[in-house]
Amino acid sequence: MLDPKFLRNELEVTAERLATRGFILDVERLGKLEQKRKSLQVSTEELQASRNAISKSIGQAKAKGEDVAPIMAKVGTLGTELDAKKLELSALLDELNAIAMSVPNLPDESAPIGADESENVEVRRWGTPREFSFEVKDHVELGENLGGLDFKSAVKLTGTRFIIMKGQIARMHRALAQFMLDLHTTEHGYTEAYVPLLVNEDSLLGTGQLPKFGEDLFHTKPATEEGQGLSLIPTAEVPLTNMARDTIIDEDDLPVMLTAHTPCFRSEAGSYGRDTRGLIRQHQFDKVELVQLVKPETSMQALEELTGHAETVLQKLQLPYRTVVLCTGDMGFGASKTFDIEVWLPAQNTFREISSCSNMQDFQSRRMQARFKAKSAKKPSLLHTLNGSGLAVGRTLVAVLENYQNEDGSITVPEVLRGYMGGLEKIG
RNA sequence: GGAGAGAUGGCAGAGUGGUCGAAUGCACCGGUCUUGAAAACCGGCACGGGUUUAUAGCCCGUCUAGGGUUCAAAUCCCUAUCUCUCCGCCA
Question: A266 catalytic, yes or no?
Answer without folding.
Answer: yes
